[in-house]
Amino acid sequence: MTWKLQAVFPNNKTLQGSLVFLPSAFLAVFLTLLLVRGHFFARMVLVSLIVGSISSAVELPSPFGTDNLSVPLSVFLVIAGMEKPLPLS
After folding, report:
1. Does 49 reside within a domain?
2. Contacts of 34 (CB under 8 A, 6+ apart)
3. Residue 13 lies inside a defined structural domain of this protein
4. Stated pTM of the model
5. Contact call for residues 60 and 18 (beta carbons, < 8 A)
6. CA angle, corner 70, sides to 80 and 53, nearest 5?
7. pLDDT by residue (tens digit) across 48-89?
8. 7, HSE (Cβ side, Cα atoms, 13 Å)
9. What is the C-alpha to C-alpha distance for residues 55 and 36, in angstroms, rounded to an integer?
10. CA neighbours closer than 13 Å in the CB half-sphere of residue 45
11. Is 30 inside a domain boundary?
């Protein structure tokens, strides 16, 4: 049985590549948070799931290599936004 990579999205992204990106993004964020002490395990998993999901959603529609900029920028914005509490009023 051979795997044939077919572009299923308009920007030549493959389903296999998109399915691999989510767990790899999750692991990258999770392992980074493991190195930074002071986080609870449940929070590390939750942050990793959120950041991995959002970065996957940003990577998928990015055309022609712009994901090299859009993915790190989206990860930065999500993590920076999680560090600041939401205003109450």
Report:
1. yes
2. 44
3. no
4. 0.77
5. yes
6. 65
7. 999 999 998 898 888 888 889 999 999 999 888 887 665 654
8. 7
9. 21
10. 3
11. yes
Domain count, the chain: 1
Which residues constitute the domain of residue 45? 25-59
Size (the chain), residues:
89
Q: List, in sequence order, the alpha helices (H) in 1-89.
A: 15-35, 41-59, 67-83
Residue 5 CB-density burial (10 A; 0-12 exposed, 13-18 middle, 19+ buried): exposed
Alpha-carbon gap, residue 53 to 57, rounded angstroms: 6
The pLDDT score that the predictor gives to residue 65 is: 82
The residue assigned the tokens 């290599």 is 65
Both tokens of 73, joined, read: 């920028």
User: Do the beta carbons of residue 31 and residue 15 sit within 8 Å?
Assistant: no
